[in-house]
Automatic annotation (TrEMBL):
GO terms for cellular component: cytosol; succinate-CoA ligase complex. This is Succinate--CoA ligase [ADP-forming] subunit beta. HAMAP family: Succ_CoA_beta (MF_00558). The gene is sucC. Its cofactor is Mg(2+). It comes from Mesonia phycicola. Mg(2+) binds at N208, D222. It is an enzyme of class 6 (ligase).
């Protein structure tokens, strides 16, 4: 589950990470009120107006601007709220901005020049350890840094059993070229950031940039946070932060129906029970010359109601040219799934306008095949994996 910047900063702040303070607003008038309140609390004279969408590169699309007075705050907020923000991480259509973050100006003058760094915490799946990735090149696309100056990207791997150790935090601060007060501030920042990542059950914390202010404070100017969906039962307060306006509408509908669905760009819809079988089915479709249109795991109770709901979700995608149903009947009997498919097909009538290939293996698979073959519907049965692939290839030809 992705969070907005202001929500990620709330989590960071709760674990003692120093942040660029701000107040969220959804109208220009509310933005002015937020700016006034922020000036009272922080003394900031200028304000940064930031579009709140689940995408990076907002500044490149005109979603981050500096306001030097209240009139500019109102004007800029009015321009950003409601706009379709297009960034390198959105589709060509962009994302609608429903709210903005009014943030304090932290690039104030002082004894030293402000410096920007990049820092993220994530899981290294290759070795099962957490990893802090960091660079002196903050404020830039990390992909560009990795491509053009890979020697400026550092990593520090952390054993989840022990957590981050003091020498690792010091090593990070040293590699960033810090000393004195800034060095001590950075070690505290790194400890708090890792703790926030660990205790919030996140899959990603990305701060770009981490700022060393002119008076040697270290703070998070941005926050890109993804929470592990599987851990949300432990964090009801985080679950309440979900903004379904930012998510794929079909995926939201599937989640509310208790189905595991991920929207893809292909032409063959998939309905499968079990994540492993779903991945194998997607490979099968690729080998047959098609492209998976979705990942859809209906779970172990593939009754008529769930099957019908799954069909409706798949057919929302206009690019779907065929549907492959691949069910292994272990707990659930194949004949019950077959009857569910037949009933769902009849209930939906003309809504199903593409060929369907059904492969059912397991308990009562022979009975299931007979049910499908005698249904009189535009449904073809298959027994073997390769047979199903051949039939997918045939309908796409």
């Amino acid at each position: 589950m992705n969070l907005h910047e202001y929500q990620g900063k709330e989590i960071l702040n709760s674990f003692g990470v120093r942040i660029q303070r701000g107040i969220v607003a959804n109208t220009p008038e509310a933005a002015v009120d937020a700016a006034k309140k922020l000036t009272e609390e922080t003394g900031t004279g200028w304000h940064v107006i930031k579009a709140q969408v689940h995408a990076g590169g907002r500044g490149k699309g005109g979603g981050v601007k500096l306001a030097k007075n209240l009139q500019e705050v109102e004007k800029i907020a009015g321009e950003i709220i409601g706009m379709q923000l297009v960034t390198p991480q959105t589709s060509a259509e962009g994302k609608k901005v429903n709210q903005v973050l009014i943030a304090e100006d932290v690039y104030y003058p002082g004894d030293n020049e402000p410096e920007e760094y990049y820092m993220s915490v994530l899981l290294n799946r290759a070795n099962g350890k957490n990893m802090i990735m960091y660079s002196t090149e903050g404020g830039m696309d990390i992909e560009t840094v990795a491509e053009e100056t890979p020697h400026l990207i550092f990593t520090e791997e952390i054993d989840p059993a022990t957590g981050i150790l003091p020498f690792q935090a010091r090593k990070i601060a040293f590699n960033l070229g810090l000393s004195g007060a800034a060095f001590k501030e950075m070690t505290k920042f790194v400890f708090a950031l890792y703790t926030a990542y660990d205790k919030s059950d996140s899959s990603l914390f990305e701060i770009n940039p981490v700022l060393k202010t002119s008076d040697d404070k270290i703070l998070a100017v941005d926050a890109k946070v993804s929470i592990d969906d599987n851990a949300l039962y432990r964090h009801k307060d985080y679950e309440a932060m979900r903004d379904e306006r930012e998510e794929n509408a079909t995926e939201v509908e599937a989640r509310n129906a208790g189905l595991n669905y991920v929207d893809l760009d292909g032409n063959v819809g998939c309905m499968v029970n079990g994540a492993g079988l779903a991945m194998a089915t997607m490979d099968l479709i690729k080998q047959a010359g098609g492209e998976p249109a979705n990942f859809l795991d209906v779970g172990g109770t593939a009754d008529a109601k769930r099957v019908e709901e799954a069909f409706r979700l798949i057919l929302k995608d206009e690019n779907v040219e065929a549907i492959l149903v691949n069910i292994f009947g272990g707990i659930v009997r194949c004949d019950r799934v077959a009857q569910g498919i037949v009933d769902a097909y009849k209930n939906m009538g003309d809504a199903i306008n593409v060929p369907i290939i059904v492969r059912l293996q397991g308990t009562n698979a022979d009975v299931a095949k007979e049910l499908i073959d005698s249904s009189g519907l535009n449904v073809e049965s298959a027994v073997q994996f390769q047979e199903a692939a051949d039939k997918v290839q045939k309908v796409l030809a």
